[in-house]
Amino acid sequence: xxxxxxxWDPAKAHDQEIGHQLFDRxxxxxxxxxxxxxxxxxxxxxxxxxxxxxxxxxxxLAMESRMKKGLVMRRWDPFFPELFRYADEIDQTxxxxxxxxxxxxxxxxxxxxxxxxxxxxxxxxxxxxxxDAAHDVHGLPSSRDGS
Length: 147
Hints:
Blueprint: H1 12-24, E1 29-36, E2 40-47, H2 50-69, H3 79-85, E3 91-97, E4 100-106, H4 110-129
Helix pairs in contact: 1-2, 3-4
């Protein structure tokens, strides 16, 4: 497991602001496709709005960087620190497209796969409901042993 840092860091204000703008603009996200597999997830999030596309891409790339560094966002939601703890067990590829972003993430650890599935569902909820979903707390998988 990776150590995590839950304090303030120089990029946090910017990254938080991008997230807030996405909550504000959630209705401009025109499509989110999630594919869950036994190894992980593949998501494609697109928009016809150029500003929203830029925000989506900025957000996804920033969150990847934060995960690699253990710099947790949403630390008040027990799910997100847990996901960040397992960042070193996630093989992730991010592909930016002219109309959005694609994320492929997988793990050989069944518990981490469950975390990836929960995260995909949470992000879909954020994209659908915006601020109405912003303060939801997300549950953890039932066990770390893959059952």
